[in-house]
Amino acid sequence: MLDFIHIDKRVKQALDKPPRDRYSYLANAHRKARKIIASLIQGTNPAMAGKLTKAGDNRINNCLKYDLGKGFRLVCIKENRNLFLLYMGSHDNCDKWIYKSRNIKKLYNKGETHPVKCSDPCRKKHYTGREKADPETCFKDFPPEENITQSELKSVFQGLTQV
């Protein structure tokens, strides 16, 4: 579960300025990046928020690379309960950025990132099934198992019981 997503100012500027051609590969990458970020803000697990690259990246610890299609990538680093969206660009440019930043130590510089608070999927009224929620905290309001009667179990699991 993430507490904050920190969006680098260069990534934010790139996402705020849409490409001129709405149907270009870059525009498609922008749409996918926005969808991934929105999913992360809603509380989705970072591994489930979007399509990750097959190889990943071992040059930076805890690095996630999202595949935005047609050679575009979004580079993120997870540190504790924070996710830093640090670079978005073409595959070659991301590779160069990762090579230059392979010894990165400090991820958060004041004014360099825009922190966004993530929501907790346990607070949602309706579950979509994509959220990974802790049953201990999310289902506090449900009655304990010993209060459930056999008739209630039969009505829930109709196909599993024999009459």
Structure description:
The protein is of the alpha+beta class. It has 5 helices and 5 strands. The chain has helices at 9-16, 25-41, 91-100, 135-138, 150-156; strands spanning 4-8, 63-69, 72-79, 82-90, 113-117. It has a 5-stranded mixed beta sheet. The longest helix has 17 residues, at 25-41. The N and C termini lie far apart (43 Å). Mean pLDDT is 78; it is low at 123-131 and 135-143.
Give, in spatial order, the strands making up the sheet with the most strands. Answer: 2-3-4-1-5
N- to C-terminal separation?
A: 43 Å
**Mean of the pLDDT scores?**
78
Largest sheet: 5 strands, mixed
Features:
163 residues, alpha+beta, 5 helices, 5 strands, 21% strand
Detail the topology: elements first, then pairings:
Elements (H helix, E strand, L loop, with lengths): L3 E5 H8 L8 H17 L21 E7 L2 E8 L2 E9 H10 L12 E5 L17 H4 L11 H7 L7
Parallel strand pairs: 1-4
Antiparallel strand pairs: 1-5, 2-3, 3-4
Brief write-up:
With 163 residues, this protein is of the alpha+beta class.
